[in-house]
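FW: tagging you since you asked about this chain on Friday. Here's the raw sequence from the shared folder, copied in full. Didn't touch anything.
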Amino acid sequence: MDNLIAHQIPAVHAPDIVGAVAGPIVFIILISLLREPTRQRFNAVFVAGAGTAYLRGGFGPWEMLLPVLVTLCAFRGLTSYRFVGLAWLIHAGWDVLHHLYGNPILPFMGASSAGCALCDAVLAAWFLGGAPSPWALLSPREI
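HL: got it, structure written out here
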């Protein structure tokens, strides 16, 4: 019953939002330097690791649900960016639950779960869109 103690929902401020959006943009730019299929495989493994972020997050045995779901998606993500995106979307949902529960992923940063949710949502959108390389925008195109 100790896990059911009422928690306060942390406030989210502008710097939390800016950092949560800037982080995945920098990640996307840097990870796009990797060639395929290495880039896709790396991202599938990376999101699988992110699925373990909350193992001691306060939801008791329910915390095991996130790594199971994310790992299943990550395995399929080895051949499909959309499954990597789905894994990030699931993780974003878990982040929202933790933020509303008042149990942030980083105890010293109250809004960290909200920021993580926003970061994960940006990543999910990019992967669900097929993970296009931003570097392709800079290369000359044929008309």
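FW: Residues 48 and 105 are 16 Å apart (CA to CA).
HL: agreed, and The chain is about 55% helix and 0% strand.
FW: great, closing this out.
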